Amino acid sequence: MSEPRDTSSISFTALYTGHVWTRDGISAPFFHTRGGAFLYGALAPFEFIGRRIVGGNIRTFLLQRHHLIDHRLHQLIEAGVTQVVEIACGLSPRGHRFCQQYPQLTYLETDLPDMAHRKKQLLQEHDVLSERHRVLPINIFAEDGELGLAHVLDQLDHSKPVVVITEGLVNYFPLDVISEFWKKLAVALQAFPQGTYLTDNYPLYRGMPFYRTLKVLGNMLGAVSRSQVGFHFHADDEAIGHFKTLGFDDLKIHNPANYYDQLPIPQTRGNPMVRILEGVVSA
User: Strand 162-166's sheet: what is its strand order?
Assistant: First the structure.
């Protein structure tokens, strides 16, 4: 059996995104890191230029996607969901915040072993972990064993619905590669009465302003992170059709612009570049 793909090269982005959430006030102070603060400052000139030229920057899209995923997760919990798995959790504050707000919630945070160990230590130091809020290692390409998706989902009650979240992960892989995980996830969610999958995605719609610029930026980020950054879809119906071929019963696509009057998210000039995909699998 071949070794699972090593995605540890992209973990540096966890520091930057973690600091963005801390600076925006949606993360506890103990999530602050020196590395994140350094990256935040180093990228400030480029973020300024992006805001002026494109009408939005990385920070804008990070906050748009985080708030929108939070919004849908709140709605799903209010509708009865009590189990959540966040994959590639990094320094996301979501597990901590939601477990504080919802005492009925079981929340599993997962990441590659080194990042999961770091996150677990951080939360243990501040005494916020419990039986219902845990951190586990995972590799989304592992076929079985303790790093496999099945092992993580086996920690849950299969008689109850579940929500699985990936944020800041899928665009680091070409479509054919990340589709391996999506297909595996769709099969695994069939073991629950209903499974909902929430993820951010950066499509490259035909006719989108700065189409070529985005492709260049994607290649640059891929070189820095030693990964293959990909823009997966060129139209909404393309994404919907693709997810249905992988075993999802339905896919909804959320545009942050449709939530400007509902959520405290920064606005972009023109069409936002990020979308939230919500896939559903029913038993």
Answer: 133-137, 106-111, 83-87, 162-166, 194-201, 275-282, 250-254
